[in-house]
Amino acid sequence: MIWKDRTIKAIAEMIAVHPNHPAPHFVYRSSSRLTRFFEEAGTDHVHDGTTRGDWTADTLRKILEEPHTDDLTPPDAFCRVIARLMDQAEAQDEPEERPAALKALNLALGREGFEAFYAEDKQCYIRHVGTQRIAGISTNPHRPLSTLEAVRRLQLAAYLDKCSEDDLIGEVLMPLFKHAGFHRITVAGHKDKSNEFGKDIWMRYQLPTQHYIYFGIQAKKGKLDASGVTRGSNANMAEIHNQALMMLGHEIFDPETNRKVLVDHAFIVAGGEITKAAQQWLAGKLDASKRSQIIFMDREDILNLYVVRNVPLPADALPKAASDLDDDLPF
To answer: For residues 225 and 278, what is the distance between their CA atoms, to the nearest angstrom?
Structure first.
């Protein structure tokens, strides 16, 4: 990541406080303590005896050049440095929440579109202001959820119960996939069914090699099952079969590359459950090559991914009554 020199120097001054120009609310660190600071942040940088401020700024530049997911997520080592800098045990002349130190840090981070904050565990994290994506927190959808995350999960579940299919696509799936790093997310005329060819959405993902792979999404609001007829909001997997074949067999036009491409993978997404029987039925109908291109994603996947990635909830996903939330929380 390439950050402004002004930003890097400001953070370096917070880490390596100058004795003649003390930075209020931050700890002074000698050469040995500076080395220990970066060791405690999980790096192997050792102070070489040069001017502490300049060396720290150079070290931060090296850390920001380390591999990272994308420009919306700083390298893990940088996140650990910020967490170490904002250790609440080092509060200077202010409460342990360190409001003055946090404000100073956010003045610097704000120039790059990021902000720091304290989470429930009293650790300091960084998030991208535009997407609210949090760096340094695992996005594993199977990890335990915090109390606040569990509440957000319930709010989104309540929204999925009442939203329309178009809301599922526009208010839930599109923000989720944007947050996950997909590009050119395009709704394929779902309301008027024009030129869909089995796709509600198409999008692309850029590999580290700079190549693109393309995805199509067929979304259904309710449960997908393998029963003989469609009941209520449930959709029969047989209805998805032809749509999946069309999705994988028709080209899409990417205006940025000015060429037509085939969909590499197809997401079958349901706002409810996708039964095992339905998955097996579709797999049995498709040949081996097309079968490997299908990715299933149901309600549980949507809820977990949405919460661990800290995607902002849809505007209509209003909080449930506090008493209802208390009854539903799994602890």
So the answer is: 5
Q: What are the helix (H) ranges across 19-98?
A: 31-40, 52-64, 76-85
Note whether 245 and 98 are same-domain residues.
Answer: no
SS3 of residue 232 by DSSP: coil
DSSP for 104-145 reads HHHHHHGGGTEEEEE-TTS-EEEEETTT-PEESS---TTSPP
Single residue among 115, 135, 155 that ends a domain in this structure: 135
**Residue that finishes a domain, picked among 88, 103, 135:** 135
Q: Contact, 119 vs 125, CB < 8 A?
A: yes
55-110 pLDDT per residue, tens: 999 999 999 998 877 778 898 899 999 999 999 999 988 999 999 999 999 999 99
The verdict on 316 and 190 lying in the same domain is: yes
Same structural domain, 37 and 13: yes
Residue-wise burial string across 167-185, b where 16 or more C-beta atoms lie within 10 A, e elsewhere: bbbbbbbbbbbebeebeeb
State pLDDT tens for residues 136-164.
766 778 877 777 788 889 999 999 999 99
Domain hosting 110: range is 5-135
Number of structural domains in the chain = 2
Q: Nearest to residue 161, comparing CAs of 263, 15, 299, 22?
A: 299
Nearest Cα neighbor of 216 from 265, 259, 261 is 265
C-alpha closest to that of 188 among 249, 259, 252, 271? 252
- Residue 18, classed as helix, strand or coil, is strand
Predicted structure pTM score: 0.65
Q: Which residues of 197-227 are buried (b: 16+ CB within 10 A; e: fewer)?
A: bbbbbbbbbeeeeeebebbbbbbbbbbbbbe
What Rg, from alpha-carbon coordinates, does the chain have? 24
DSSP string computed for 274-289: B-HHHHHHHHHHS-HH
Q: How far apart are CA 320 and CA 329, in angstroms?
A: 12
Beta bridge partners of 315: none
Do 283 and 193 belong to one domain?
yes
